[in-house]
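Structure, all two chains, one model.
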Amino acid sequence: MTFPQHLSYTKTHEWIESLGGGSYRIGLTDYAQSALGDVVFVNLPEPGDTLAEGASFCDVESVKAVSDVYSPLSGAVSEINEVLLDSPERINQDCYAAWLIVATADAPGSDWLDAGAYSALAEAEANAH
Amino acid sequence: MGHATALYERHVKAGAKMAPYAGFMMPIQYPTGVIAEHTAVRTAAGLFDVSHMGVILAEGHDALAFLQRLICNDITDMAGGEVRYSPLLNENGGIIDDTLVGCLHPGLYGVIVNAANAEKDFAWMKRQRFGDTALYNISRDISILAVQGPRSETILKRLADTEDLPAKYYTFSSWISIAGTAAFVSRTGYTGEDGFEIYVSKHFVAGIWDALLESSRDCGLIPCGLGARDTLRMEAAMPLYGHELTEDITPIEAGLNRFVKMGKGDFIGRAALAAAGKPSRHRVGLKMTGRGIAREGCAIYAGNEPIGRVTSGTYLPTMGYPGALALIDATHRSAGTTVDVDIRGRRVAAEVVRLPFYNRFREITRANHLSDTPGEEAYTPAGH
């Protein structure tokens, strides 16, 4: 599993890329896509929807189950990745290219991890299963 | 944890995600993933460990009379080497389990039952037993493999003599040699494809598993888990016990009419079925037309009126859309009816469609080939 150094991560397995100017790109980590298995459906929010840190803003369906995706920050949705509506499998193919949304926020989230801390957490969870 | 099948170590070594199912630690999927495994079975072949399934033998001069009273299908005309699907009913006409009955000879029958129900079924059978009928639960001694997919026959022929293999769907061969090991092989399955199920002593199953994978990699044979088994049976609209079938659902409601022989003489549940008459609810197939995947338990509405619930729902990989099996008011059961499914608080549109979603004979016809097997057999909801 890979966890790029330039990204931030949440304990709920989202990655965040800071784009500057209070803009953040958000997606699912390699651990998340691997645990989900084949992703067959993504329900994205609408641009303009408000985001609350820690609250579900999107759901991702694999063959077997539906999983919530939690917002890493409080702010608003500025862009959604419409490609995923027709090609959800891209999350499995390249989870760091297949972003879910771009959000604007006044501040980053309160509990983000760097790549080192997140990979330790992901490894511990993988071993627990 | 649960019981390990004889192939547990092999599944773990192959990188399978293991999870408890019906008291057994079973492979849910291998690193290939559910969709690749599903596609392998539709286009080439897949190998499943289904050793969790139960096997109960009924033997004796009264075994046939006993089974005729126990199950709702009619097996009086069954000869050695034939297999028949039948529900097993309680006194209320509810389904205790769905089974495959194999006739070794009229005096010895093998009943294949669902893993989660094996103990319950065996206890029920012992309670109903009469006359010269001996019952043996040999579930823990037998391992079962399923080779499923259009290339199954080619694959089996590499490890067995062609004339030994069961030629017709729903037949089986006894004590034939597969990779040098004596086994029972039936032409049955739970995927909607041609295929075989191999019954063998748990002490020898690993050799057959290895031989199959080693000899048939070039055929595209890959190991498949319970995840793909579920999406495959869903597309073929085969019911799964605990979902489409329960002790509160009759075989008529579940759409299994052709396995209920009211005219064969008395059987357990017959009086209740006769008294119930036409059912007020029925199993249907739903194709999701809105965005979302209906899951088990989702409520179904016609306008604001609740009309039933989803019993199984998933994405159907071969069809390319999400589908569900559901139990709804019979007045809404005809194909083309539009309904709404409540998916986590959201109303999503769906359409009642004819079952099965996937029919291999229809696909073959579409591909402009001729089939010498009647299409009817594709509907047989045989398996677990």
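Chain B touches chain A at residues 17, 28-29, 33-35, 227, 230-231, 291-293, 295, 314-315, 317, 322, 344 (CB under 8 Å).
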